[in-house]
Amino acid sequence: MNTMTFESRGENAAAAPVANRAAIADDKAMLRAAAELTRDLVQPRPTLYWADLVGSAVVGYAALAVAVTVASTGWAVLAGVVAVLALYRGMSMIHEISHIKHAAVPGFRAGWNALIGVPMMIPSFMYEGVHNLHHAKTRYGTAEDPEYLPLALMRPWTLPVFILVSALAPIGLLIRYALLAPLSALSPRLREAVVARYSALSINPHFRRRAPQGEEKARWTRWEIVTSLWAIALLALTATGAVSLKAFAIFLAVGSGVALINQVRTLVAHLWENEGEPMSVTAQYLDTVNVPPPALLPVLWAPVGLRYHALHHLLPGLPYHALAEAHRRISKVLEQDSPYHKANYAGLPGLVGKLAAATMRGR
């Protein structure tokens, strides 16, 4: 869903030592090597997709059940952390749904919605048709990109606000599906606003989504109804005591934890240094981040291939399980002065520090 509007530094932005990304030309050797070295990696592996999804859901919901029922506070917290990490991994597969050819992994979108999208109130239509705009060469980093804000050029306070506001995501999603969805069915004007402003997993507060058409509209309507019924049922069961307030609060806390981790990952997915100009593919790559091995923690906070986010922008059609091998091949072939190596970073703390320092320089 859309977040709040953040204030730019305006004239002070010129003080920040940010590279002119829009002036970077494409490195044809890098683009050619990336394409040629990975042609045999483009086929998704359905068994792995399903195993990853089902495994994440089973572990996540089992841990959530333990957190709700166990008497020990320590064990409840530990189970809650496991639930957050497992469900976050499952949720992250929405990224794959927006890229894969669905015939290559039959039924996966429906399975993901049933196991993750509906229970967590993030049906796949909230990302499909939105994320692809982020990858459009003429849209990336511009005002028309739903997933971009020039965070490096904004006020320092925007970073903690950007992260903390995500903790309210479960409340916002409950309002979206338990209240706005049914009410908007009665009011065309409200429906227009709900579709345009509250039906996308975006961070650009100025982004307005177009109404779905044809098959997309039918699929959207089907999953929105199911998600709305689930949200209403959850509130009704809690109000009547069938679901305890403790269980409801833990469910919301786990949802907040998932949203917080995802927002931190989003914070370091790019350098956020573009001021709205169209960029070459190489410039987009250099504004994006890889966190390859030997770093270990990205397995948790950037799962399902998200640790290779810059590489993904070079090759958005590669399935997540192929990115590590693609990175190994490309890194081995390209010289050290290639732009490819300049998008690789050591880990989360350094990336957060780099972004925070960029905002501080322009105060």
Q: What does it look like?
A:
This protein has one domain. The protein is 53% helix and 0% strand. It has helices at 28-36, 46-69, 73-92, 94-97, 108-117, 131-134, 158-164, 169-184, 188-197, 214-239, 245-267, 281-286, 298-301, 309-314, 323-333, 348-361. α8 packs across α10. Residues 1-18 have low confidence and may be disordered.
Summed up:
The protein has 363 residues and is mainly alpha-helical.
Which features would summarize this protein structure in a list?
mainly alpha, transmembrane, single chain, 363 residues, disordered N terminus, 0% strand
Helices and strands in order:
Blueprint: H1 28-36, H2 46-69, H3 73-92, H4 94-97, H5 108-117, H6 131-134, H7 158-164, H8 169-184, H9 188-197, H10 214-239, H11 245-267, H12 281-286, H13 298-301, H14 309-314, H15 323-333, H16 348-361
Pfam families: FA_desaturase
Organism: Sphingomonas citri
Keywords: Membrane, Transmembrane, Transmembrane helix
